[in-house]
Specification:
The protein is mainly α. It has one domain. It starts with a helix and ends with a helix.
């Protein structure tokens, strides 16, 4: 095979490896984001956040009535 053709094929292979790597990075990031979303959705801290908001609201309303 002619060296110039061989060099062009190598560059094409390397470019394809880079595209595959980018696709894999995006897929892993998507999977990680989905896992994080699921963990936070089922996180019991979500219930505590509602309690914090309720307490702050009661404090605000309590100061207005006093």
């Amino acid at each position: 095979m002619h060296p110039i053709i061989h060099d062009g094929l190598n560059k094409a292979r390397i470019a394809e490896f880079h595209r595959w790597a980018e696709r894999d990075r995006l897929a892993r990031a998507s999977i990680q984001a989905d896992r994080t979303r699921r963990e936070h959705r089922n996180d019991p801290a979500g219930g505590r956040a509602g309690g914090v908001i309720a307490r702050r609201l009661l404090i605000i309303l309590g100061t207005r009535s006093a």
